[in-house]
Every structure is written in C-alpha cells, then in structure tokens.
Amino acid sequence: MIIFGVGVTVLVVLVVGIAVARKIDGDSANYLVAGRRLGIPLVAVSLTAAAVDSNATVGNTDLTAQFGFWSGASLAIGLAICLLITGLFLAKPMNAMKLFTLADFFRMRYGRPTEVVASVIMILSFTILLAGNLVACGFLLQEFANIPYAWGVVLSVSLVLAYTVAGGLFSDAYTAVIQTVITVVAAISLLVWVALSYGIVIPEGMGPFDFEQLTDPAFGAPINWATLIALGIGDLVAIDFMQRIFGAKSPEVARRACFAGAAGTAIIGTIFALVALTASATLGITVADGPILYQLLGDYAPPLIAVLVLSGVVAASFSTASGAILATSAIAVRNIFSVRRHSGAGPDPLLRWTRIAMVPIVVLGTFLAIRISQTGILLTLAFDIMLACLAAPFLIGLFWKRPGAKAALIAAGTGFAVRMVLLALTPTLYGVPNDILHVPNTLVGPELDGWATIIAAIVGFGTYALVGALAPRTAEELAAGAAVRDELDAEQADTEAPEAERAVPVPA
Prior knowledge:
Mean pLDDT: 88
Helix content: over 70%
Distance between the termini: 61 Å
CATH topology: Sodium/glucose cotransporter
Strand order of the largest sheet: 1-2
Largest sheet: 2 strands, antiparallel
Shape: globular
CATH architecture: Up-down Bundle
C-alpha cells in the first residue's frame, strides 16, 4: 500500500509536469524563467519545495537523532535564513536585472573569464546537490519496494528528467504546488501522530533550547555553525533559488515569495527534527539500520501517515532535483558554451541544447549518488563550496562596485583551493566519516570539522576584499559590463515583444 500511494503521487507530479510543457511554446525564455510571469503563490511554493528537499527531511532526521536538534534542523533553518536574507536584500535587485541564469550576473559584473569559472563551480556544486536528493529516493525504493538502491536512483532521476526536459521552470513551478501541499500536510500529520502516540520527547542536551550545541565544541558547535553559515550564506548563490526569483513577474513578488518560503522551510524542518528526537528516544531507532525516518514510517506509523510523508519526501526531492538539473544545464549551455536564445524562424538553440545538456548532468549526479550515499552531508558540502568560492564576489560585488575581475578570480581560486585541501585532510565531514575526499594523514583530526568551512569562507571573503581594494575595475571592464547589460536588455525586449515584432535572424 505504501509504495502504491507514493507511486500515485509520482504519477500525478509527472502528468502535471508534462501537461504544462505546452506553455514553453518553443521559447527558452519560457523554459528557463517561465516567461517571467510567476506570481507570489507559484514562486513561494517552488522556493519552499526546493528548500524542503530530502536533505532537509531525511538528512535532517538522521543528523538530529545522532547529534541533536541543531545538527539536523540547521539544514532547514540555514535554508530559511538564506531565503530571509534573499528577500531582504537580493530578490528585488536580482529580479530587476532580468537575467536568464545567475552566471549572467558574473559575466555582466566581471567579464567572460569569471563567468566561465563561476559556471564550472556552480555546476559542480549543484551536481552534488542533485546527488543528495537522489540518495533519499534510492533508499526509499530499496526500503519499501525492494528495488536495489542503484536502480532506485536511476528510476527516480529518469522520472524527474522526463518532466524537466518537457516543461522546464513552468513544470517545476506547477508541480511544486502539489509537492508543497503534500509536504505541509505530511509534516503536520506526522507531528500530530507522534505527539498523540508517544508525546514529544526531547533527550537531555539535544533539544532546540540546549544552546551548548551552538556554544560548546564538545557538543558539535563548530559543525552546527558551519552548517548554518554554509546554507544561510553559501546558498545565497543558489542557482535554483535564483532561477525561480528570475521567473517572478515583479521584484516585489520575488521579495514576498522569499519571506513565505523562509517561514515554511523553518517550520517544516523543525517538525521533522522534533519527530526524530522523539523516535530515537522512545523507540530506540538508530541510523545503523538505515534512515531514521524510513524506519519510523515503515515499522511504526499507520500506512496513511507513511504514504503522506514518503510522498512528501519524494515530491520535495523531485522538485529540488528538477531545479538543479534545469539550472546547471542552462548554465553549461548559455554561460560556458555561449549559446544564446532567439525567437525567430527555426528552433531556439538555447532551448534545444539546454535539454540535451541535461543528460550528462543527470549521469554525473547519478554516479555521485551511487558512489556517496549521504543526504544532508551532500547538501551542506554543495553550498560549502559556493560559500568559499562565489559568495564574496556575488554578495559584496553586487553592492560594492570597486572590485574587478581580478578580485573575483583570485578569491574563487583561493577559496576553492583552501576548501579542497581542508576537505582532503579532515577525516570527518559534518560529524560523519569523510567518504568523499580524504587523504589519511596525521596533521589534522576530527576537531577541524566545521572549522574548515569557516576558515575557507574567511579566506574567500578576505581575499576578495583585499584584492578588490587594491585592484579596482578597469575602464575596459566597465565598458564590457555595459555591453553585456545592453545585450541582456535586448534579449528581454525581444522576450516581451509581440510575436510579429520579434527579430528574425538573418542568415550570414
């Protein structure tokens, strides 16, 4: 019954995602940014669905059960902080720029070399994020349908790919309505059932008000702060969040949708953390036997609750995976290979090649998911990299006009090098064994875990500020940036023009 109910949900999402594909109408502007026509409800639910993914649910419950509330709930709370900051400072200016991808900002602000470097880092980061969501789906199918883990990952990503290829951001936004409704109902139902059946039990020292988890290294404070910082600040460079903000029909719509998404994400993440604490305390469930949430639902919960919650996990994972596939493919095609859209005669090349580029992105994400079967860890690592490399050129560069391309490139390269070296040396990653990239050594022990994130971020931000102060933008960079702005304005004007007025490319 459980897998049947989840299957029905997946089928509905798939049908809706493919059905709205007609809105694309052969235009990459509709495909990538939904024609910039999304209102507050669609933007808000798509942001929430992207934030409350398998990492913030399955990963959240596993980490909370092992290390306490702030270890797991920080995944969702960090994402909520990100959306709050975005709403306060970034949503309106970023929507007003009328970009097609976040990498367009780096091209306009710093030039072509920085655009390419930033694009490569974004693709790496979001392929890791994609893998984290596929992990949860693979375990779910293994646990409840007896499908081998690797085949479960392949099946899940194939379904996501089907409606993402068809409908792009329109499919993502409309399916997010279903996904968010299911997730909200599931979270509330799960909390009520757990409270009525077992009460809300908080083990000593592991609750939300046990702030030693944020102040005492012995209770994981550096790791918990690293998670909050990586997601709260590093996730500001989230290409899937920004893709949804670009699709909002006005800057004010984008801003208000971020606030709604932040509230929903924080509430849902807190609910799953409280459930995990109760389950581990009253039922003795541990991660040694598999994901905490799956054990609770499979062995103890009523079938209807299990169907709701698992459907919510799958739906949220699909939404985040869809956004990651779409955004990374668009950046690869538009910002690395410089394919541009046109709305004249013949197929739109940006639309066609973005769809084609999804295949290698999906293959790489699937490989990582099979190779590294983690959830919350992959989410945090993805934005850990963004924090060290691109957060400073994006956040500071948006408001401080002095730094030029040299500052952005040196900061990105230095931050990346420091983070990768510390990753390789540290034997644990956010409290669990480092199975991603560890070189056995006697120089660094587990005590650096968490601090590695903070150190790399300080290096990235410090390098950008120092080089930016010493090496301002040149006149050539300013002129190139103005030219890119004119190009983007022309693309937007062509998007808004009536069909009969759109320019038809003239053969060379």
